[in-house]
Amino acid sequence: MCEAPRPPCAGEAAAAAADVDVVTTGGRRRIPAHSSVLAMASPVLASILERRLKKDRESGKSGRSVVRIRGVTDAAAAAFVRLLYAGRCGDGEEEDDMEKHAVQVLALAHAYQVPWLKRACEGAIGARLTADSVVDVLQLAALCDAPRLHLRCARLLAKEFAAVEHTEAWRFLQENDPWQELQLLQGLHEADMRRRRWRRKRAEQRVYVELSEAMDCLDHICTEGCTEVGPAGRAPAATPCARYATTCRGLQLLIRHFSQCHRKSCARCQRMWQLLRLHSALCDRPDTCNTPLCRRFKEKEQEKAAVMKAGDDADKWGLLVKKVKAARVFSSLANRKPQMNSTSQC
């Protein structure tokens, strides 16, 4: 339910006689109103009333001043005035007004600068949005500067574009406003490219997280041991670790294959070499590390950095190390937060 700063209640408004007539298009209907209520609800109406009342006083005119609301039906103008008096969009008559006249009331709320009513109209129109009406509502949202409604229309247009293409509104747009059609298509293309970039970034982040978990498992296997592989002189663990099913078992199988394979061009062995090299780049205790070849890889990388200039391969490898290191930090923080919550509850 949307609410505005409350105008005078019905009893207070009724205590003073109406001093303004809201006249609809063509003068077909006059709606009695109070200038204080209208001025409090809308700064535009406040400015109009100030000029009108001043002009009436200078001319000596008696009777009610007139405020004209043009461009909408009589029923929509009456609904607009009722909503200004109510100061909210709740149940009952206000809900019926929004149901029947939301589009026209949105235009009035934009023109007369009533933000709360504008947001309510955006929500009401967006809730009834369909493939048949989305093109017209998108143009209305652009004219009325309604960003929330525009976003909902853009999302529906991207989701159901195949259905929108066959609507009468889209065909009319193609025939009469090709520039607007081009803008919509460009927006859809840009939104699709953003989704693809987001998915690609998420996939890359998952790879970095998996590599971070592999580094933790490699350290765990070489330090404590697991069910099939462990450090020299220690029997394998009797029970599997928490990551046995997801990462640890596959890594143990890869280590066993690496220790027994004698082929020079083995893809699995190359993968193990890369994991050992990555561990060495991330390890901050090479002198006491139990992981095989950790210190040797560290020294080799230092020698290579001293004699070689930065190149594409070096830059890519350094970027990979930074990404995996960041993933390890975020993972440790995420694991620490539930532990802190459980400790605080205790």
Automatic annotation (TrEMBL):
Keywords for the protein's UniProt record, in alphabetical order: Metal-binding, Ubl conjugation pathway, Zinc, Zinc-finger
Domain BTB, first and last residues per copy: 18-88
GO biological process, one term: response to hormone
Record's keyword annotation contains Metal-binding: yes
PROSITE patterns: BTB
Keyword Nucleotide-binding: no
The name this protein goes by in its record: BTB domain-containing protein
